[in-house]
Design brief:
The protein has 369 residues and is an alpha/beta fold. It has 11 helices and 15 strands. The strands form 3 sheets. The chain has a 6-stranded antiparallel sheet, covered by helices on one side. Strand 4 and strand 5 form a beta hairpin. The chain is globular, with a radius of gyration of 22 Å. The chain binds adenosine-5'-diphosphate (ADP) and magnesium ion (MG). Adenosine-5'-diphosphate binds next to helix 1.
Length: 369
């Protein structure tokens, strides 16, 4: 997929932006607070229908306006198409070639995006929530149906949590069925994804770190000791048993304490947990390896790399890692959007076909390179 023409209206501080991105690197420069991240956020929303930052959709609409719009012509497997998304108080609507899309898996046919922002550098070090988000977004990039499956799970979880707080024991059983079925489905997806990513993470980490580096292992760790092996039915039965066993405690606390929403992704180096024992440099190299693994995996699955969004990452990486990352990107036949306050940091990612833009106060102007 390649964005050919992008237009943004009233999205955060971007009143009206129309730009023709490079087929390769589009470099967005500007001082802080000008709208660089907002621009990447608009592209991310268009390509994933998810907000990049944890926000309410209404925050995306420019102050004083009623709706935000992002649209792009993109070159996908089915030829040139037009994708659009509109955000207003009531929610968001996705359009493909002008028609509102209800079945979103068709919308995503050909669209996939991976974003890398400074917050991601904490992926290994911080709590499990970020790792679960990484996993679910990666799973959904890989299999668009995960969007609906994850939503089913969250709905079932909320319903059961509400029932735990109010309803009788007998009533709880009727909420458990949908929850364990949706939970098992999600587990199967995550397990399949981790199996695909693990060898790629090990290889990328070894390459980033050079000779003598410890072996990086990526593994899925379900909460409450629920084993993640076996068929989907077996997983559902095991999850049901765990919920049964924890019922009294869960009722006291008012939430469900086993299931995919409590699970974690574990990264280790030579058998030691990287979260506790890795140096900051190793943890960051692991984050880079995770991102590269996701990109390479999508590239293998889709037959082309996903769209890449790099928000101000170069200023956060040491020169060696920044050089590695930008060198990797420069060699990848992908469309990439990069932001920075400092043009020099992104120089290694630029090539003859790069496009440079200046972002100032919500307006975007081409820069002559
Ligand atoms: N809904 C909105 N309407 C108008 N401006 C907004 C909205 N949300 C955020 N902003 C503005 O966007 C600016 C931040 O843009 P951002 O893209 O994060 O900057 P940067 O160039 O540093 O990445 C801030 O000035 C903020 O006030
Ligand atoms: Mg920013």
């Amino acid at each position: 997929m390649r964005l050919v023409q992008l237009s943004i209206r009233d999205f955060r501080n971007l009143a009206a932006v129309d730009l023709a991105p490079s087929p390769r690197a589009t470099i967005l420069l500007g001082e802080n607070g000008q709208g660089k991240t907002n621009l990447l956020e608009a592209i991310y929303l268009l390509t994933t229908l998810k907000p990049l930052r944890a926000v309410r959709l209404a925050e995306l609409v420019r102050f004083g306006e009623e709706r935000a719009q992002v649209a792009a012509d993109f070159d996908g497997p089915g030829g040139l198409r037009r994708a659009a998304v509109e955000v207003q108080a009531g929610g968001r609507t996705a359009f493909l070639d002008g028609k509102p899309q209800e079945r979103l898996d068709t919308y995503f046919d050909g669209l996939a995006a991976v974003c890398f922002a400074p917050d991601d550098l904490l992926l290994v070090k911080a709590g499990p929530e970020g790792r679960r988000r990484f996993l679910d977004r990666a799973a959904f990039n890989r299999w668009p149906a995960v969007l609906g499956e994850a939503r089913d799970f969250v709905r079932a979880l909320r319903a059961r949590n509400a029932a735990l707080r109010t309803a009788s024991l007998e009533v709880d059983a009727s909420f458990r069925g949908p929850l364990v079925r949706a939970g098992a489905r999600l587990l199967v997806r995550r397990r399949a994804l981790v199996a695909e990513l693990a060898p790629r993470v090990a290889a990328a980490f070894a390459e980033i770190s050079g000779p003598g580096a410890p072996a990086a292992v990526l593994a899925y760790r379900p909460a409450a000791g629920v084993r993640a092996e076996g068929s989907e039915d077996e997983l559902a039965a095991r999850l049901a048993a765990a919920l049964e066993e924890r019922l009294h405690r869960d009722r006291e606390r008012g939430y469900t304490s086993a299931g995919p929403h409590m699970d974690d992704l574990v990264l280790s180096l030579d058998g030691r947990g990287a979260r506790l024992y890795g140096s900051q440099g190793q943890q960051r190299a692991l984050v880079l390896a995770l991102k590269i693994a996701e990109i390479e995996n999508l590239r293998a699955a889709l037959g082309r790399p996903p769209l890449l969004l790099l928000d101000d990452v170069s200023s956060e990486l040491d020169p060696a890692k920044n050089g590695y990352l930008l060198g990797y990107l420069a060699a990848l036949p992908a469309q990439v959007f990069l932001t920075s306050t400092d043009r020099r940091l992104l120089e290694p990612a630029a090539g003859p076909d790069s496009a440079f833009f200046q972002v100032a106060n919500g307006a975007v102007q081409p820069l002559v390179s």
